Known about the structure:
two-stranded antiparallel ribbon, 10 helices
Amino acid sequence: MTDHMHPPPLGAVRVFAVAARLGNFKRAAAELGVTPTAVSSQVKSLEAHLGCALFDRNAQSVTLNEAGHQFAEACETIFARLDKAVQDVRQTANRTSITVGVGALIGSQWLSRRLFSFWQRFPETGLHLQYSPGGVEFSDGSTDMMLAWGDGRWPGLVSEGLLRFRTSPVIARTMLAGKSSLADPADLLNLPLLHWKDQFDWLEWFEAHGVDTGGHLPGVVIDDSSVLLRAVMSGQGASLGLLPLIEGELQSGQLIQPFSDDFTPSRSYHLVYPKGALDHPQLKAFRDWIVEEAGLPR
């Protein structure tokens, strides 16, 4: 008596899936490199295990019945997942490099200054820094991890807080030419405001300094941090600068802080990656290394 609590033989299921896809035992046999009789025998053994017929048979052809269609759809899904798992395992075994998405400013002013440290620790692992000025995106499979600015909430992904930077309004000195000095935070509303990705950071800063904005601000929203920095330096408006990343521009006088105090925003840089990423030894090593570089406990 067949034990229907056990899964059917995988070989028979694979033969059935090919026969169902091709709709013909002879063509299935040619693809599998076996005889039509062997295909028929495997399908019959599967039907016996399931306790029902999967094909309607006549002298000239075989046709999937309702149960066959249902089982064929399930097989297609299962084998697609199995093939993907095989590819993933092979990629893991053969992985020699990892790809990390970064924005221009954090990449050039923070991460790039630590690359030699990574090479010293992991000389056999290639590191590809991928320019990613937009949002967090992993759907195309080309990126393993990302350094992303935000509140840490990216549904379906793992996010670890990494770097929290002080911020302050910054402008080019030329913005004050012919104008009175900025004596009060509200005076910034008289200047063009440049926003990075959205208005949230400026709105949060004004609220913290007691300025009523009505929940909306004028100005230009720029996704690319390098474009934003260039715009501020050329006198196009005021921006909230991440102070540790623009120390050179402040020291050289290319940018100035109208107000001496600084502010710690609620958003920060996070290391973001898909669930299960740390199962890959190279990605786990990168994660531990960058957390250590950020001065956080591993």
